[in-house]
Specification:
It is globular, with a radius of gyration of 13 Å. It has 99 residues and is an alpha+beta fold. The protein starts with a strand and ends with a helix. Helices cover 42% and strands 29% of the residues. It has three helices and five strands. It has a single domain, classed as 2-Layer Sandwich (YaeB-like fold), CATH 3.30.2310.20.
Length: 99
């Protein structure tokens, strides 16, 4: 059974910002990014414990083709996504975002 998916408002803002940036680079690239993020989220929901724990029970999944990571937690049959960050950003930024 697939887990329930909850995206924090900040995570949705991360995706929107990245989409806008990619779409400004080339029309259609933002759509490709969204599709890859959606595929990553679906993989997380199907197998929520598949990705390695990186810190205090939080997990990280990498988005294919794009240098982004999805930071999430799995508890009580629910996957909560806290942030979708570019992998070159300072790790302290995503660490501060985790509850």
């Amino acid at each position: 059974m697939a887990a329930k998916l909850v995206l924090a408002p900040e995570a949705m803002a991360d995706v929107e910002d990245a989409y806008n940036w990619y779409e400004a680079q080339r029309v259609g690239l933002g759509e490709d990014f969204l599709g890859r993020v959606e595929a990553c989220l679906q993989a997380i929901v199907r197998a929520p414990e598949m990705h390695a724990v990186i810190q205090f029970g939080y997990r990280r999944a990498l988005v294919r083709r794009f240098p982004y990571a999805v930071f999430h937690e799995f508890a009580d049959d629910t996957v909560t996504v806290y942030c979708v960050f570019h992998t070159s950003k300072d790790p302290e930024k995503w660490r501060r975002r985790l509850p």
